[in-house]
Amino acid sequence: MLALLVLAILVGGSLQRVTGMGFGLVAGPFIVLLVGPLEGVLLVNVVGATMALLIVGRLLRGVDWRRYAWLAGASVSVSVPAALLLRGASPAALEIGIGAVVIGAMTLALVTSRLHGERRRFRERDPRPLVVTGVASGFGSVAAGIGGPPLAVYAVLERWDTKSFAATAQPFFMTNALAAMAAKVIFAGATFPAFAVWEWVVIGLALVASIGLGELLAPRISREATRRVLVVLAYVGGAATLGRGLAQLL
């Protein structure tokens, strides 16, 4: 299991470094499948926050702090209500929900990205789209460790500059994951996976290695190729988690 967990972190982390997002979408479903719905989502939050912290130092100058403030504020405000709402959910229901969220969110992002002719910029400095995006991302992070798709949809509709998006996404994902983690531990009684110390060390090394791998791949892989790999892996992981949840109900 640890070997598969390390592989999921390496793939998801390298894609996060290359594209600016994708760890929760790609690695999240596989981590949940391997570790379980409650501990798995918490582990996704921990690793995701650490990864964003390591990446943001290289992109700090490009952060749009106004957008970050609206997104993070909305996300944090919904973390506790989401944790309370999900507190009594069964493991099977959580796995079904997580799988469905991944598949639905990726489909929404794909459909939105194809609406080239319908895209329009939101009114200048209108905070409402940012608030809606932050709320959706915060709820997704608590429920499934996945906060990226709403942000991706907003970026497509707003035609957000890719460099600014990738930079701003990192502190937002870090804040989002930490808020979700705290809410679930305090209000939903979630616990961390019972790994041995050496297993946590291996996970940490895999995290650092994934960023290094992303640094090597970034100049060599086209954006379109990276996007296709991310989409395929996200669908496979989401379908696997959804299938496991459904199997527990049979």
Automatic annotation (TrEMBL):
Family matches, as InterPro entries: TM_pro_TauE-like, TSUP
Keywords of the record: Cell membrane, Membrane, Transmembrane, Transmembrane helix, Transport
Record carries keyword Membrane: yes
Localization (cell): Cell membrane
Source organism, top-level taxon: Bacteria
Primary site of residence: membrane
Regions crossing the membrane: 30-56, 68-86, 92-111, 131-157, 197-217, 229-247
The keyword Cell membrane belongs to this UniProt entry's keyword annotation: yes
Membrane topology value: Multi-pass membrane protein
Pfam family, one: TauE
PANTHER family: MEMBRANE TRANSPORTER PROTEIN, TRANSMEMBRANE PROTEIN YFCA
Entry's family note: Belongs to the 4-toluene sulfonate uptake permease (TSUP) (TC 2.A.102) family.
Protein name: Probable membrane transporter protein
Organism: Myceligenerans pegani
UniProt lineage: Bacteria, Bacillati, Actinomycetota, Actinomycetes, Micrococcales
